[in-house]
Specification:
about 20% strand; eight-stranded parallel β-sheet
């Protein structure tokens, strides 16, 4: 029922003192992608990591690195993340003046481009770039910190984006407050890629937590 559902643990919730080990652990526990949040203290009110950290953890897994750039400007740093081993790079609609150019740059460097919307960004903002992306990332919390509460109003946005996408092979990824209670809601609305930090890392039972997310998501798929 959920074989094509993507689970992307966010290493923002990992133990940074053991980051390489943590990446290996969630890989072995059944992660599909490794989600890496890049924050600059400017576009969002926090600072996390840069290309050197991404490069350092790259040898610890062969799973795709799903790099979420919450930085502005983003274009000057995209090549560095390509060199560090990113497979997927997502940029925010509001992070630069030329979204189309940013997406073309990501693709030209051999990575899959994605576009992200904060809770206040309307879905109409991506109407003219849908043919340039492999996925749309809907933030269901305000970006900048892990462990926030899911914003249910974003479910309407997910449904609208699913309608906009139509039959295009574009993933809808959801990030923010995703756990076993909210996973079925976003999947029912049309999501097929779930980013989860505390929902995977809490308690140290990574395989059990990932399996529980997949099972919860199955309920949402049945209800769709």
């Amino acid at each position: 029922m959920t074989q094509d559902l993507i689970i992307a643990p966010s290493i923002l919730s990992a133990d940074f003192a053991r980051l390489g080990e943590e990446v290996r652990a969630v890989d072995e526990a059944g992660a599909d992608w490794i989600h890496i949040d890049i924050m600059d203290g400017h576009f969002v009110p926090n600072i996390t990591m840069g290309p050197d950290v991404v490069k350092a953890i790259r040898p610890h897994t062969k799973k795709p690195f799903d790099v979420h750039l919450m930085i502005a400007p983003c274009d000057p740093f995209i090549a560095a993340f390509a060199e560090a081993g990113a497979d997927i790079v997502t940029v925010h609609v509001a992070a630069g003046p030329h979204l189309d150019r940013s997406l073309q740059l990501i693709r030209s460097l051999g990575m899959k481009p994605g576009v992200s919307l904060t809770p206040s960004t309307p879905e109409s903002a991506i109407a003219y770039v849908l043919d340039k992306v492999d996925h749309v990332l809907v933030m269901t919390v305000n970006p900048g910190f892990g462990g926030q509460t899911f914003i249910p109003e974003q479910l309407r946005k997910i449904r609208a984006i699913r309608e906009m996408i139509g039959r295009r092979p574009i993933h809808i990824e959801v990030d923010g407050g995703i756990h076993i209670e909210t996973a079925p809601l976003v999947v029912e609305a049309g999501a097929d890629a779930l980013v989860s930090g505390s929902g995977v890392f809490d308690g140290g039972r990574y395989a059990e937590n990932i399996a529980a997310l997949r099972e919860a998501a199955a309920a949402g798929r049945i209800a769709r």
